[in-house]
Amino acid sequence: MSETVEKTNERMISLCHLAKKFGENEVLRDINLEVHRGEVVSVIGSSGSGKSTMLRCINLLERPTEGDILYHGDSILAPNTNLSAYRTKVTMVFQQFNLYNNMSVLKNCVIAQTKVLKRTKEEATKIAMEYLTKVGMDAYINARPAQLSGGQKQRVAIARALSMHPEVILFDEPTSALDPEMVGEVLDVMKSLAQTGLTMIVVTHEMAFAREVSDRVLFMDGGYIVEDGTPEEIFRNPKMKRTKEFLSRVL
Amino acid sequence: MSTFDWIIRLVSEYWQSFLVGTGNTMLMALVGTAAGFVIGLLIAMVRTIPIGEGASPFRKWVFRIVNFILNAYVEIIRGTPMLVQALIIHYSLFVPLKMHHLLSAIIIISFNTGAYMAEIVRGGIMSIDKGQFEGAHAVGMTHWQTMVHVILPQAVRNIMPSIGNEFVVNIKDSSVLSVISITELMFASKQAGGSYSKFVPAYLICAFIYFVLTFTVTRILRFAEKKMEGGASYTICGSQSDPSAEIRLTKQEERIGE
User: Fold this and answer.
1) Which pLDDT tens digit goes with each residue over A101-141?
2) Strands annotated E in A37-88
3) Which chain A residues are Cβ-neighbours of B134 within 8 angstroms?
4) In angstroms, what separates the C-alpha of B248 from chain A's closest C-alpha?
5) Which burial class, exposed, middle or buried, applies to B116 when counting CB atoms under 10 A from its CB (0-12, 13-18, 19+)?
């Protein structure tokens, strides 16, 4: 955790009594969460605990069945919400990278800038190059996604998200699909991002990352947020039995 | 005279008419396939619009009605022979409008191809991984932007063999449009054969030309497919030791390097 980052009390995203059902199956139950500007929040928990669904609800890839999601105090579930504009501000990085297979690395980072944010091609290219350099992928701008390794793909995906100049990036298990030796390169990029004051919500199985980099850790189980605290609190003195059990299994 | 002699004679006397017939056949097949492809793309794009739970009831109803009409079009056209469609549409609509026969035929064949293409494109879209849609939506792209820039380029590449197939089918099936007196290849052959009551030699010529057309088109499409697969290599821009270097890597080398 870096001391240089300015943490404010400005609320970016609030989840209020959020619930999501797939048919009869309740995946999220009464989720309440506030994320402030500049916070790095890690979400841990076993598979099927609702971590990814919560993240996908925030980007509205899934529509919650109950409750509300506020962005700077305004509901994004309201019918007049400009979903496209919201998603440029609260964007997402996926486990499976989801790079556009029909485009080069550079085009992957430029296309949404020109089409959604209406930036000029020159400006978009400049911004894309800046972030591709930052993630160390500037040499590969002409490559196609199919020609890259998993770690390289994920770094491009992060550059693509950053090129939109978002306020929040949601990371959905960004290292889970990677070979072990490639996890480090992606986590390094994420660590450096955490120090820039970007707001990040990271669903992860990397306990070391959650412990070292995040300001807050959420433990989820059975669709509930069971425990919410600093890494110190969660990893050193977990209050809940379920958290202790989970940590004893993964640490 | 043997059949072979008759073929020589018919070709030497009627080569112009065969040539016009071939030209018209190709024109109808080419324009019909291209226009049908555009119709198919548009229909598939509309039919894949996601209607979320958040949509207003009005939107849902409009979508339902539009979808019903498009489904009806696809099912009816696919479920009836083009010969019958041609007769009905031509005599009820285009004759009263005094439309040029060839234009009438091109519209009919496009309309017919569109229904098949709609299903082919839909299959192509379904073959694309869900992650491609999500990757585009997550950075704010709309349905249309996602379709035009990300999904359709990949889908179209996947359905190239089927599009080629439709083209070949159209070259042959345009023969039924001789019923609305288009001088296409079939009509030309019938005329040539009819003048001497020698139909078999005339239809042999006809079959030969159809085969040459479809075979050539198939080869060209195969070549185009290969081109669309894109380069197997890319250029690395610079390296740490020599920033100006441009190293070409092939796919194979890259795999070894991984």
Assistant:
1) 999 999 999 999 999 999 999 999 999 999 999 999 999 99
2) 40-44, 66-71, 74-75
3) 61, 92, 94, 98
4) 11
5) buried
Query: Can you give the C-alpha Rg of chain A in angstroms?
Result: 18
Backbone angles phi, psi at A53, to 5 degrees: -60, -40
Rounded to whole angstroms, the Cα distance separating A197 from A90 reads 14
Q: Which domains does chain B have, with CATH numbers?
A: 3-257 (1.10.3720.10)
Q: Each residue's pLDDT tens digit in chain A (251 positions)?
A: 444 445 567 889 999 999 999 989 999 999 999 999 999 999 999 988 999 999 999 999 999 999 999 999 999 998 888 999 999 999 999 999 999 999 999 999 999 999 999 999 999 999 999 999 999 999 999 999 999 999 999 999 999 999 999 999 999 999 999 998 899 999 999 999 999 989 999 999 999 999 999 999 999 999 999 999 999 999 999 999 999 999 999 88
Residues from chain B that touch A98, judged by Cβ atoms under 8 A, are: 131-132, 134-135, 138
pLDDT of residue B236: 67
Question: Of B59, B60, B125, B139, which to mutate for an interface test with A (greatest number of A Cβ within 10 Å)?
Answer: B139
**H or E element that contains B238:** none
Cβ–Cβ below 8 Å for A102 and B153: yes
Instruction: Select the residue of A87, A100, A142 nearest B132 (Cβ to Cβ).
Output: A100
Q: Report the 10 Å Cβ neighbour count for B181.
A: 11
Residues of B in contact with A169 (CB under 8 A): none
What is the rounded CA–CA span in Å between residue B205 and residue A135?
Answer: 65
User: Closest by alpha carbon to A42, among A203, A206, A205, A174?
Assistant: A203
Chain pair A-B, CB pairs under 8 angstroms: 95
Q: What would you report as the CA-atom Rg of chain B, rounded to the nearest whole angstrom?
A: 25
Reported as type and span, the H/E element at residue A238 is: none
pLDDT band at residue B128 under the 50/70/90 scheme: very high
pLDDT of amino acid B96: 87
Q: For A127, how many CA atoms within 13 A lie in the half-sphere containing its CB? A: 22
CB A93 within 8 A of CB A158: yes
Which residue is it, tokens 């605290």? A229
Give dist(CA B227, CA B26) in Å, integer.
23
User: Please, what is the end-to-end C-alpha distance for chain B in angstroms?
Assistant: 72
Would you say residue B59 has pLDDT above 90?
Answer: no
- DSSP-derived secondary structure letter, A3: S
Q: For residue A21, which amino acid is it?
A: K
Q: Is A88–B139 a contact, with Cβ atoms under 8 angstroms apart?
A: yes
Q: Looking at this protein, which amino acid is placed at residue A71?
A: Y
Burial zone of A202 (CB within 10 Å; 0-12 exposed, 13-18 middle, 19+ buried): buried
* A1 contacts A42 by C-beta, under 8 angstroms: no
Where helices occur in chain A by DSSP H, the ranges are 51-58, 83-89, 105-115, 121-134, 150-163, 180-194, 207-213, 231-236, 241-250
Q: Cα–Cα distance between B53 and A65 in angstroms, integer?
A: 9
